[in-house]
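Whiteboard transcription, Tuesday session. T.W. wrote the structure tokens on the left side:
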């Protein structure tokens, strides 16, 4: 964690990842998580920092999921996360507004098979502030990909969650800290202000 955190809104983006109804349901007490995300999103918008939502979504019938995919096989079997369905909707506490972008993904990470990289490069974004569910899923995959592609990565610890608190802690304290700045939303808000 850096004492001198600085974030330039012109070259940064806030990625709000998988804060969808079904995913939020996996968090035992999601209210503090949602409140912290809402406050960070509002601050990002107020300081013209681009807000990009990344969501899991599939066409009817899930043609994006192969029969051998162990992670998403249950999603396909259960008919889950079909675009427009209730479970796929972004939670009402953190709904996108005009100017926000929504990127739909079909795998765990925010970059896999999406146009996210194109959007970031076209807008000269080199710093990513990450929030999301689950810490061991989309947040982990996105931290790794972004760091490998030379993005500066900041993770908002209190804006991420995992079903397993210990996994969340280990990832934040021991894994992400090697490739990202791990801090809280208040420090990020101060840095963009």
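and on the right, the sequence the group agreed on:
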């Amino acid at each position: 964690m850096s004492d001198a955190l600085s974030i330039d809104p012109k070259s940064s983006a806030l990625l709000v990842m998988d804060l969808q109804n079904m995913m939020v349901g996996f968090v035992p007490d999601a209210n503090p998580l949602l409140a912290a995300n809402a406050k960070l999103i509002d601050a990002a918008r107020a300081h013209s920092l681009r807000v990009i939502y990344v969501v899991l979504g599939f066409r009817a019938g899930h043609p994006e999921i192969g029969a051998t995919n162990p992670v998403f096989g249950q999603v396909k079997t259960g008919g889950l996360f079909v675009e427009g369905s209730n479970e796929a909707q972004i939670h009402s506490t953190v709904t996108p507004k005009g100017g926000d972008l929504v990127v739909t993904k079909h795998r765990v990470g925010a970059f896999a098979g999406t146009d996210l990289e194109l959007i970031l490069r076209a807008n000269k974004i080199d710093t990513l502030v990450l929030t999301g569910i689950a810490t061991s899923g989309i947040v982990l995959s996105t931290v790794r990909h972004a760091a490998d592609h030379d993005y500066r990565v900041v993770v908002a610890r209190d804006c991420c969650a995992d079903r397993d608190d210990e996994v969340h802690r280990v990832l934040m304290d021991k894994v992400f800290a090697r490739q990202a700045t791990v801090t809280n939303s208040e420090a990020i808000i101060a840095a963009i202000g």
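Someone added at the bottom: The beta strands are 12-17, 50-56, 101-105, 127-133, 152-161, 181-183.
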